[in-house]
Design brief:
The chain is an all-alpha fold. It has one domain. 69% of the residues lie in helices and 0% in strands. The protein has eleven helices and no strands. Helix 8 packs antiparallel against helix 11. It is globular, with a radius of gyration of 19 Å.
Length: 303
């Protein structure tokens, strides 16, 4: 057990968003916001007061708190570098997926509690796309677990991560590439990034995640922003852990993993700078493609 992955996630999560925004600014020929802008925004919101509509109930107030709490618990299950997660046990990757689902459920519930048809539209889209992203995540992790331990798939994320080596990549590169592709699509979809969603849009007909949090303010909005940054880090760490073999040299593994997280943020910024957002009817096709990639990886494992 190690608390280092959890500490790195808590401290560095907002920095990934800063790297993405700076990359997009460079491609657009702008100076862009500071790398630490996300930290400034969260701190500023924490010092403000929250405004609540008389039509909302306790569900609206509980949404950001429970969502952040579930994401924080999920952060204790993710390994990083050569360090195991703070908590790990057999089948913890299923709990990880469900914790993200709990956070999403309360965010959607809070949006629906406002009684706004606009937020209801975003909530329905969020749930529909999540129903396609979750199978790709679970099937991809199941394929990695099967590859890591052979006959059994009863394994934890930490054990899975520790067994990703150069030898494993040499013998099962196709399986790992298929899983990495599936998880990269899940990474973009779950974090509301282009081509699935545009985190900066304010067009009513295209908003998905952002429309659900329009009525939140002050500390509640800070919790949502920090929870989103933490989710970005966790799914990124999960993807990097599968792509990067472990060298079992503690300092080197941490440095390589941190560098790969920065590279992943730059790649995300490049994707958002060079692609347009997909039409809503095309997004399910992208997610089904991710599911197909994960299923194919699993089938190759049993063939």
């Amino acid at each position: 057990m190690s608390v280092l992955p959890l500490i790195l996630a808590l401290v560095l999560a907002p920095l990934m968003k800063g790297i993405i925004n700076r990359t997009k600014a460079i491609f657009a020929g702008r100076t862009g916001p500071p790398l630490l802008q996300s930290y400034y925004d969260i701190w500023k919101l924490l010092q403000k007061g929250a405004v609540y509509s008389h039509t909302t109930t306790w569900v609206f107030r509980a949404g950001p708190i429970v969502g952040l709490a579930a994401t924080l618990v999920a952060a204790t299950l993710i390994p990083f570098g050569n360090c195991n997660a703070a908590f790990f046990f057999t089948g913890d990757f299923v709990l990880f997926a469900y914790l993200l689902g709990v956070a999403r459920f309360f965010t959607v519930s809070a949006a629906l509690d406002t009684g706004s048809a606009f937020e209801g539209m975003g909530s329905s889209r969020e749930v529909f796309f999540a129903a396609l992203a979750e199978p790709a995540l679970l099937l991809g992790l199941a394929a990695v677990a099967k590859e890591s331990v052979g006959q059994s798939i009863a394994i934890s994320l930490s054990e899975m991560h520790a067994r990703i080596s150069g030898e494993l990549w040499a013998s099962s590169s196709l399986v790992l590439v298929l899983v990495a592709l599936a998880l990269f699509v899940v990474f973009l979809a779950e974090n509301s990034r282009i081509p699935v969603d545009d985190p900066t849009t304010h067009l009513e007909l295209t908003m998905i995640h952002e429309v659900m949090v329009l009525d939140h303010s002050g500390p509640d909005l800070a919790f949502i922003f920090y929870g989103a940054a933490l989710k970005l880090w966790l799914l990124g760490a999960l993807l990097v852990g599968i792509i990067v073999p472990v060298t079992h040299i503690p300092v080197l593994d941490i440095v390589i993993s941190l560098s790969c997280m920065a590279v992943l943020a730059v790649i995300t910024g490049i994707v958002e700078s060079t692609m347009a957002r997909l039409r809503l009817v095309r997004i399910p096709q992208l997610l089904v493609g991710a599911i197909t990639s994960a299923v194919l990886a699993l089938v190759l494992e049993y063939s």
